Amino acid sequence: MNNKYNDILLQQMEESEFLPLLPMNEMGDDKEPLDIPEELILLPLRNTVLFPGVVIPITVGRDKSIQAVTEAYKGGRLIGVLAQKDDQIEEPTAEDLCQIGTVAKIVKLIRMPDGGTTIIIQGKKRFDLKEITQSDPYFKARITLSADQNVPEAQDFLAHIDSIKDLAAQIIQLSPNMPTEAAIILRNIESPEFLINFVAGNMNVDVRDKQQLLETSSIEQRSILLINLLQKQLQFVELKNKVTNNARTEIDKQQREYFLQQQLKSIKDELGADNDMELSAMKKRAETKKWPEAAKELFNANMSKLERMHSSTPDYSVLYNHTDFLLNLPWEDYTKDNYDLKFAETVLNQDHYGVTKIKERILEYLAVLKLKGDMKSPILCFVGPPGIGKTSLGKSIASAIGRKYIRLSLGGLHDESEIRGHRKTYIGAMPGRIYRISKKQKLPIRSLYWMRLIK
User: How far, CA to CA in Å, does 363 sit from each of 219, 335, 337, 369, 375?
Assistant: First the structure.
């Protein structure tokens, strides 16, 4: 930007209460000599460091500072801006001020309705503080302007400038609170020195780091230090966004699930669904149920489907009956066997007179079973004409060893589905006869002794 454009912007700022979107200069008018008075009025700043060429608004609240900016605005509008060493000090002394600051021009002084004062200042040149000549009612001092540094034309320095632009652009892109105009301003800055000052002045770092940048006289060293600070800032912004995105993803997931659950509840209420109590009761029973892991997984899968279905749909009743039957099966409910051979012999003799050979064979079998202890669900086959005691012998064996007795007649069956059950997709599908008896008698299938009685 040229000096003519700067003058136009300055005139617009003096006539308006708004700030321009673009920076006011690129160090062009800083080459002109400044008419600095013998004693320059000083303005201490907290949490802020002003760089040459940069325009910033300052809200002045301390009485000492208000008098200083008022007096400077009446004069040549030049004021020396220094950062405080400690931001917590309300009334700084000469020892609390940094030794290097920036000569600034007060572009606009605005009286606020609440009695406060806001000034718009533009940094001009760096200076070294030589001597404080006045402390009351405001600071005055003798200063020495810092010598201008020539901008290097080496390739390394140009690479540093490109790195500063890239890092600053990435930070702007990752920062949601950054205005979109910042990237436009960054791309249109041509002066390397002003680019360094502009990025340093608007960077969100500690005041000590900014003051260190201001105190670095070499432009090349200042660019290297700025790159290091930008890299740290970029890492911090990336980490912050990562943490924020992870937290937002988890919250969004919870909100989505809650919203869908509320929608599902509203749909059920609209359709008149009244199956929530039944499903809750089934879940409560399942919590204390002892069953294999495969059966538990199947039950949970069925329950998930039932919760998404309406009770009036045809598939609901089929799936509900299947799940309820699955829940009512005695999966891990075993009886304890009693292999007392004398007691078994007594029971067999009381129930049956004669048939000595078959009773001895049964006792031999029980003895072997007692010794081995690993025979599961064996099958005994009794053959004989009707009325000789085949069925009653099976009942006596169950009574002798302390097991439940089930009589299952398979005579005359021609459909194997009566035994193993139907597919649940069929209309009127029922479990097999064996499973129905197991559910009725509360007897696990794996604990059954099978006796095949052939007439």
Answer: 106, 20, 15, 10, 15
β-pairing, 140-145 with 40-45? antiparallel
Q: Where are the beta strands (DSSP E) in 112-219?
A: 117-134, 140-145
Please report, to the nearest 10 degrees, the dihedral formed by the alpha carbons of residues 28, 29, 30, 35 taken in order: 170
Q: Give the helix/strand (H/E) hosting 181.
A: helix 181-188
Summarize pLDDT for 385-426 with one digit per residue, the tens. Answer: 888 888 888 888 888 888 878 777 777 777 777 777 777 777
Give the pLDDT confidence of 72-86 residue by residue, as tens digits. Answer: 888 878 888 888 888
Q: Could you say which DSSP state residue 31 is in? A: G
Contact 115, 93 (CB under 8 A): no
First-to-last C-alpha distance (Å) of the chain: 114
- Residue 411 DSSP label: T
Residue 46 has what pLDDT?
A: 84
Close Cβ partners of 451 (under 8 Å, ≥ 6 residues apart): 379, 380, 381, 382, 390, 394, 397
Helix (H) or strand (E) holding 450: strand 450-454
Domains of the chain: 3-145 (2.30.130.40), 155-241 (1.20.58), 276-328 (no CATH), 341-422+433-454 (3.40.50.300)
Angstrom distances, CA of residue 201 to CA of 23, 70, 364 = 12, 24, 100
Q: Which of 230, 221, 91 is nearest to 171 (CA)?
A: 230
> Is there a contact between 339 and 401 (Cβ–Cβ < 8 Å)?
yes
